[in-house]
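Quiz preparation item.
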């Protein structure tokens, strides 16, 4: 996602918020658009802002969700 000069490289097509939710989540497990906007505002989900429009790279969001929200099980001795 980054090249050697530490510049961001987008590899996928940019999508809007509704398209992102449709692509990443099953319809019965899909969070709300409000949740996505709150995560975007908190900068928890990577996004591209062009003027007042907000777009997402699906793979970048998948990686961000997996790395920031993955709950690992505890190993009991």
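Solution:
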């Amino acid at each position: 996602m980054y090249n050697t000069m530490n510049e961001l490289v987008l590899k996928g097509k940019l999508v809007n918020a509704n398209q992102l939710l449709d692509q990443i989540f099953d319809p019965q497990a899909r969070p709300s658009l409000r949740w996505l906007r709150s995560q975007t505002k908190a900068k928890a989900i990577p996004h591209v802002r062009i003027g007042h429009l907000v777009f997402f790279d699906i793979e970048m969001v998948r990686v961000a969700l997996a790395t920031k929200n993955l709950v690992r099980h505890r190993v009991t001795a």
